[in-house]
Amino acid sequence: MPALAVDAAAPVAHAFASCVDAARFPGGAPMLMVPTAAADSTTTTATKQEWSADLSSALYNVDGWGAPYFFVNDDGDVAVRPHGAATLAGQEIDLAKVVAKATGPRAAGGLGLPLPLLVRFPDVLRHRVESLNAAFDYAVRSTGYGSRYQGVYPVKCNQDRHVVEDIVEFGEPFRFGLEAGSKPELLLAMSCLAARGNPDALLVCNGYKDDAYVSLALTARAMGLNAVVVLEQEEELDIVVDASRRLGIRPVIGMRAKLRTKHAGHFGSTSGEKGKFGLNAAQILSVVGKLKSLGMLDCLQLLHFHIGSQIPTTALLSDGVGEAAQIYCELARLGAGMRVIDVGGGLGIDYDGTHSAQTDMSVAYSLEEYAAAVVAAVGRVCDRRNVPHPIICSESGRALVSHHSVLVFEAFSASSAAAPHPMVDTAFLLEGLPDDCRADYRNLMAAAVHGDYDTCALYADQLKRRCADQFKEGLLGLEHLAAVDGLCEIVARGVGCVDAAPRTYHVNLSVFTSLPDTWAIGQQFPILPIQRLRERPAVDGVLSDLTCDSDGKLTSFIGDRDSLPLHELPGHGVGGYYLGMFLGGAYQEALGGLHNLFGGPSVVRVAQSDGPHCFAVTRAAPGPSCADVLRAMQHEPEVMFEVLKQRTDDATAAALAGAFGAMPYLVFDADVSGGECSGMSSDSEGSAAGAAEEEDEEWEFMRGLTV
Ligand SMILES: Cc1ncc(COP(=O)(O)O)c(C=O)c1O
């Protein structure tokens, strides 16, 4: 019997190695050999020398999706050009230094914030606002367009107070306004525009409306805000007319048109004739008729439409804008007081840096080309119809806020590169096996002797399945199951069918909270290590988050990758290997949920400064604590604490209070303790890396459950 060719009592790893064919495994059956530590370190040194920051930049296509804001610097860190292409050499901000400042121990000048960390760059936001306005301004001036651009920011993209306030402030010279889609959004838009907006700025009120919403919008007009109530459905007209009569406030009305132009990508599902929103031709005529009969046709001043987010090409854009411009001209012909054409959102982001229209991850135009296409399409139609050029409004959200923030999170452990080489006691294994399993084993060994690796794999598989069945029947013990698994692993390595699956990196993050679109719609964001980029990232990894959910992972990445090039971690469970998720400033924060009660990240606001490190942290706040997320689910942390306190001593009670006050994420030795943030007070001292100017520093530490 071929099985006799091997010593049945010898550990199988050796027995199998002895019968493998040297030609198949040149160099002596490498699959069966565990690399030595010495060999490993030699390889690492060699690859370090061969690699460079430029190669990393090319590998992750940083210039493709990141320009003009993100690049890899000579230190091998991701860095930020806060003013885009206008950033001077000494103004670039090293992201790794920002993270060190934000998360470092307070005793060493850090802010002691727990990860994950959202880093906001208001300068980038300013640059986006200015670039959008400059692009339209150029298109208007260079074509002799007879009116102007006056955009609004749709607050649903990111309702964070500081983001909205920044946009209104930076947009003030451009009469930049806001768009709201619900009552709370309208309230925040009203107060923000009232406090710091340009008096001419538009306040576009979209979304389905009831009397309360419409009344609020009319009240905004009475306060001197330039609010426009946009009808999403024909029925809303009656609500507007009634509220206007009751309040004695004359409305400015807009109308959302349902275009026939349809965008084929994921974000186009709300467009086209069957789209969810807007009025069709008959409904538009009906609204015009009603307004005319009420003597209110002059109130209809704005035409709105939205082709969909991430419009892929300027050809589709021109088509849709051209169609809408025809409707605009028809409304003017019918006697409406038309003044504004609002082209909605859709100005896209090049998430994968390919500048192509093939997927939802990219778009085949620049900001300037987008603006030129809109202005040209409106101008062309109005000229043909002899209608005065309207003010062009856009509701560009994604394009304004995507770049302004970076989410930084840690990988804290990874599945091992190769499982330790199993040693199998064959005598023990054979002793307990039933006859059919023994036959499989013998056939397996025979095939090995003859170098028939396909047959080897077949018998190994059969043996494993039979043993699993025996185990389920209670006929084999765990030791046998482990021995068979070990044997099959040895065979797999020997025949070269070791599973080459990427390694799993565990990240201190909730995908559902911080990157919900990756889970919900398969969105990909650029993700890469923010440091060590002068070292070759030699490991292919996927990312698995903290939640107890099989969907809590990232397995597809820009560039058509199903794994991400990563580095070996500094150690297991130590933290300190930082990854950045870029271009996620739109939608993710508000869409994120509380799955497993993981709350949002800590947040810092980082401005370019003339200090030695080029940045100042002007605002810092830890993320929601365990108490905060419990409260969000109607629990009462204070009551819970009192109940638990009855059962323990003072020292343990203090620890319990700390647990309520800490963020829900993991804390590692390399990190500052999350507890360090608890009840922390303002402090601008010792801020070594990029210290904020004192007048800029407004620490907001919002937590602390006291015993
Ligand atoms: C009516 C409306 N306006 C503006 C936007 C913002 O679009 P984007 O983020 O693509 O600019 C949206 C998003 O879908 C929208 O529905």
From TrEMBL:
E.C. numbers = 4.1.1.19
GO terms classed as biological process: L-arginine catabolic process; response to cold; spermidine biosynthetic process
- Write one Gene Ontology MF term: arginine decarboxylase activity
* Modification sites for N6-(pyridoxal phosphate)lysine: 156
Family matches, as Pfam families: Orn_Arg_deC_N
- For the protein in the UniProt heading, the enzyme class is lyase
Q: Which CDD domains match?
A: PLPDE_III_ADC
Q: Where is the composition biased (Low complexity)?
A: 678-691
Region annotated Disordered, chain positions: 678-707
Q: What residues form the catalytic site here?
A: 548
**Which InterPro entries does the UniProt entry name for this protein?**
Ala_racemase/Decarboxylase_C, Arg_decrbxlase, De-COase2_N, De-COase2_pyr-phos_BS, Orn/DAP/Arg_de-COase, PLP-binding_barrel
State the superkingdom.
Answer: Eukaryota
What cofactor requirement does the entry state? pyridoxal 5'-phosphate; Mg(2+)
**Known catalytic reactions:** L-arginine + H(+) = agmatine + CO2
Question: Any idea which UniProt keywords this protein has?
Answer: Decarboxylase, Lyase, Magnesium, Pyridoxal phosphate, Spermidine biosynthesis
Known NCBIfam families for this protein? Answer: PRK05354.1, speA
The Swiss-Prot or TrEMBL record describes its family as follows: Belongs to the Orn/Lys/Arg decarboxylase class-II family. SpeA subfamily.
State the name under which the record lists this protein.
Arginine decarboxylase
Which classification does the entry list for the species?
Answer: Eukaryota, Viridiplantae, Streptophyta, Embryophyta, Tracheophyta
